[in-house]
Design goal:
- The protein is 45% helix and 14% strand.
- The chain has 96 residues and is of the alpha/beta class.
- Helix 2 links the parallel strand 1 and strand 2.
- This is Response regulatory domain-containing protein.
Length: 96
């Protein structure tokens, strides 16, 4: 697992690692989670990476963008639900 101090750093990290899954917050410095997801979906090498968004305030906006996010979790969220979602997305990706 890797983390980045801000959205722009997250995009750099995603481009270099091409992870199996990205979990991002909506509110980040330099680039929001929405902007990160838009940049990932615009990059053909990153389009297939599932994205989970966690949000304290912007979940409604993100929920309308089903083209960007595989799941949206409102804060506070239950960690067991998040872990189950990560496992489920991992299985789905393995079946593609």
């Amino acid at each position: 697992m890797h983390d980045a101090p801000h959205g722009a750093g997250a995009l750099t990290l995603v481009r270099s690692l091409e992870p199996d899954l990205v979990i991002t917050d909506f509110m980040m410095p330099l680039m929001t989670g929405l902007e990160l997801a838009e940049a990932m979906k615009a990059d053909t090498a990153l389009q297939g990476i599932p994205i989970i968004l966690v949000s304290g305030a912007q979940g409604g906006i993100a929920r309308s963008r089903t083209d960007l996010f595989d799941l949206v979790f409102d804060k506070p969220y239950a960690m067991d639900r998040l872990l189950t979602a990560v496992a489920d997305l991992g299985r789905e990706k393995g079946q593609r």
